[in-house]
Design brief:
With 357 residues, the protein is α/β, with parallel strands linked by helices. Helix 9 packs antiparallel against helix 10, helix 10 packs across helix 14 and helix 11 crosses helix 14. The radius of gyration is 21 Å and the shape is globular.
Length: 357
């Protein structure tokens, strides 16, 4: 039985997986196991994983009989895990060599249910050229009671560190006791999983480090799920915002500030949906896009959060003005502008995205 279990879904990952596995082998803390869940890809990933399994008895290959997707592969890997703590990482990323040592040291200080750390988002072109690196590093915290940690969850969400699976180690017994699994959604299954898990935790450590390197291919790559087209984009994102809201209500800490923060997240998702509705794959003409916006105005999440929405920077203020005052045509025009900028000027779009408020 290892102290840490690392679960890695493996699908069409031959280009990058050696980098991830080598970075795990180089860990200064050595009491770990790696469960490589081969999700029936057609490249040489399985062959590569088998070699690591043969060379190091801490690496184990689970070859699934059929493709189950990232969520299914993670769930199967967690079933095989034996460690006290589990982390689900991605095959095309990498980690700093001291990651496990830092997590272990924090647990010696405070044996928490949940350990969270930061990450470096590495935006790359398909040829591997680094376009930019965004460091997301939280401040250090040791929470020993639910009343201490609950208010901090929204801080994690504002840092966009709540939803990821790979920047957290979770106490495995909680997963088992409450039958917590990744849902089979095309998007945001990681966030739904974390919301569910955090409903049961009693303690949490937050490390002031960013030892995880998250690769994002900026155009046409296999990793950039945020740019993958999913027709259910808005419904899934609105449902997750509702889950966040309900969690804060259940904890009795749904203040005006929390609602304001959630409204900012919701507005971001809404305009992303308006942009995606302009894509031909959405199969939405102008009338359908117009009807979509009118339906949004009638939704519970819109009515509950929009009164609290605020923006400091001019672009955000303009976006908010159109949706708060139900200026449907203006909102549709702004969605079209975002679509053009994102697709014709991706560099500018990325800069604007980083500077939003």
């Amino acid at each position: 039985m290892a102290y840490f279990s690392i679960v890695i879904p493996v699908y069409q990952a031959q280009r990058y997986i050696r980098g991830m596995l080598d970075s795990i082998k180089a860990q200064t803390f050595t009491d770990f196991e790696v469960i490589l869940v081969h999700d029936k890809g057609t490249d040489k990933s399985l062959e590569i994983c088998r070699r690591y399994e043969e060379q190091d008895d801490r690496f184990h290959v689970l070859d699934l009989p059929k493709n189950k997707g990232a969520s299914g592969a993670r769930n199967e890997g967690i079933k095989q895990a034996t460690g006290e703590y589990v982390c689900c990482m991605d095959a095309d990323d990498r980690v700093d060599s001291q990651l496990l040592e830092w997590v272990y040291a924090s647990l010696q200080k405070n044996p928490a249910d949940y350990v969270v750390y930061g990450a470096v988002e590495e935006h790359q072109k398909e040829d591997g050229t680094l376009e930019c690196a965004i460091v997301k590093c939280p401040k250090e915290h040791y929470f020993k009671t639910p009343s201490q940690l609950h208010p901090y969850i929204m801080e994690l969400e504002k840092l966009t560190l709540y939803g990821y699976p790979w920047n957290k180690f979770l106490r495995r017994t909680i997963l088992l006791e409450h039958n917590i699994t990744f849902p089979h959604w095309p998007l945001l299954e990681d966030l739904a999983f974390n919301i569910h898990f955090c409903s049961y935790i009693q303690s949490m450590n937050v490390l002031p480090k960013a030892p995880y390197h998250y690769r994002i291919i900026t155009a046409g790559g296999q990793k950039s799920l945020t740019s993958r087209f999913v027709k259910e984009y808005y419904n899934i994102h609105a449902a997750c915002v509702q889950m966040l809201l309900e969690q804060q209500k259940d904890w009795g800490i749904c203040t005006k500030e929390v609602r304001r923060d959630l409204s900012a997240i919701y507005i971001r998702y809404l305009f992303s949906a308006l942009e995606r509705n302009c894509d031909k794959r959405a199969e939405m003409n102008f009338i359908k896009r117009y009807q979509f916006v009118r339906q949004v105005y009638q939704s519970q999440i819109y009515q509950e959060l929009l009164p609290y929405a605020k923006g400091e920077k001019l672009p955000v203020k303009v976006l908010l003005f159109t949706v708060k005052h139900k200026l449907t045509l203006c909102s549709l025009c702004l969605g079209r502008v975002i679509y053009v900028v994102k697709n014709k000027m991706p560099g500018l779009f990325l800069k604007l995205k980083q500077n939003r408020s």
